Amino acid sequence: MQTKHFKAPFQYKKIPVDDLRKQQEENKTDRARNTAGTIKRIWSYLAREKSMLLLVVLMVVVSSAMSLAGPFMVGMAIDDFIVTQEPSGLGRLLIGLLVIYILHSLSVFLQNYWMVGIAQNTVYSLREELFRQFHRLPIAFFDKRQHGELMSRITNDIDNINNTLNQSVIQIFTSILTLIGTVVVMLVLSPLLTLITMGIVPVMFMAIRWITHRTGPLYKLQQQHLGNLNGYVEETVSGQHVIKTFSREERVISEFGEHNANLRHAGFWAQTFAGFIPKVMNMLNFLSFGLVGLVGGILAVQGVITVGVIVIFTEYARQFTRPLNELSNQFNILLSAVAGAERVFNIIDEQQEETDETGAREIEATDGRIAFNSVSFAYDETPILKSVSFTAEPGQTVAFVGHTGAGKTTIINLISRFYNYDLGSITLDGIDLKDITRNSLRKQMAFVLQDAFLFHATIRENIRYGRLNATDEEVTAAAKNANAHQFIDRLPNGYDTILEQDGSGISQGQKQLITIARAILADPAILVLDEATSNIDTVTELQIQDALKRLMHGRTSFVIAHRLNTIQEADNIIMLENGEIIEQGSHESLISQHGHYYNLYKEQLKNRA
């Protein structure tokens, strides 16, 4: 479908000036440090393949030497055999030329073959390190980032690095060696012609500097828009049910068009400026050839140089400008890779989840007594909890109720140490949570959330995620306790049925029963339930509630509830408002107080009626 955002390339009349200036301003403060630092960090990965890199460099030296020897021998053939019309020895020279070109081809093949292996090993290590970093970052990091944008780092940006390593590293080495060797030979043959040839170098550098000053920020802008586009696509694919429910297809197509147009716009100008370089270089090449031919012809007529030298020099003049052209092109590619690498290293350099405090202990088991003592907490300086105090005794069920934003989920995040509290203390069996390692604390907990998350794997593997060393018999027993065995057994492949992405293919209630089975298998001392029966049909809800009763028996349980009829049997119901506890007690005691909880309960009864 065509929208107003989709324009043909010829309609691009304006560079994204504001975005370009912003990127250039950022470059003034961080380009010298970040670009050099990023290249150095990429090199640290390449340096792990030192032996292979030495072989590659050796092959680069051989190929560069052969590329210099070829034109020189052609010039010798002209002066010694063609001009003199003396064929003796020409055969040996032609055989020598054949050997040179074979060696050149073989060395180029080997350097490319080995460099592909080095590049693949490098990006393998980089991708693995980035993925490991994802699992070391705190929950707060993911709460603030688009998941699709993060996916772009581990796919597009690292692929960009891989392509650049394959294309650019060898090319840069070859161009530098060829450039040095060419200049040396040219100076030996004719200093005057060398000076004429090198006279175009300042013009080249001025042109390249002008172009790359614009391509660098545009490549960064292009990578930024690519990440935004990926994030938007991931979001819309995940939210297809909502989009179709509200018939917002046209809106998301239009918004995608904006993201796509931004990416195309930045990419158009980045590639346009980058495309100027070969055109400018070709123009300067023709100018160089013309000058060499004109001055060389005059010198040859005067007997200063031979015709063979002119031929050699013409070829070397091409070889002199070609490395400059290739270096300038590779510089653009390198800028694009550096932009992607900076995005990757930005994630790798993100502050990881705080390490456990010195002396923090591992706990093997717990009674499950949790106490909040005047706990306060804020997200980004926005107060969420204010001096909250309560105690959950072993085996008790504590329910949290209140309007959205009251602080219910925050309490759970603090218990599991996804976030650290600011003031007060939270203790488990009398031990401050900060004195317990996060890993051992979370091993004592299991979660059954409102949105049941299942992996793309078999049902058996999804249940076994609660305890990886569980036997098949234990998995089946957990499913039976969760009232999930019956529907699993009816599936074509039973427990070996592979679930699609996020468990699509089975009902929401069935997904919830599987997550309950997973929690039962984990056998936690502390259980967290976040409205586990919402949006479930009545029959399945009864099955889930029955399974939850068995799961909660003998365990300290924390329940976030929106429907008050599901928590009437809780030992302690805590009513929160604006991060403070305004009421707490059993259902009966709170009803008898005729306070906030009573009013909320009556309102829900009236709405259900």
Automatic annotation (TrEMBL):
It is a multi-pass membrane protein. GO terms for molecular function: ABC-type oligopeptide transporter activity; ATP binding; ATP hydrolysis activity. Keywords: ATP-binding, Cell membrane, Membrane, Nucleotide-binding, Transmembrane, Transmembrane helix, Transport. The chain crosses the membrane at residues 53-78, 90-110, 169-189, 195-212, 286-313. Residues 54-336 form the ABC transmembrane type-1 domain. Residues 370-603 form the ABC transporter domain. It comes from the Bacteria. It is found in: Cell membrane. InterPro entries: AAA+_ATPase (IPR003593), ABC1_TM_dom (IPR011527), ABC1_TM_sf (IPR036640), ABC_transporter-like_ATP-bd (IPR003439), ABC_transporter-like_CS (IPR017871), P-loop_NTPase (IPR027417), Type_1_exporter (IPR039421). One of its GO terms (cellular component) is plasma membrane. The keyword Manganese does not apply. Pfam families: ABC_membrane (PF00664), ABC_tran (PF00005). Its main location: membrane. The keyword Transit peptide does not apply. SUPFAM superfamilies: ABC transporter transmembrane region, P-loop containing nucleoside triphosphate hydrolases. CDD domains: ABC_6TM_Tm288_like, ABCC_Glucan_exporter_like. PANTHER family: ATP-BINDING CASSETTE SUB-FAMILY B MEMBER 10, MITOCHONDRIAL, ATP-DEPENDENT PERMEASE MDL1, MITOCHONDRIAL. This is Multidrug ABC transporter ATP-binding protein. It comes from Lentibacillus amyloliquefaciens.
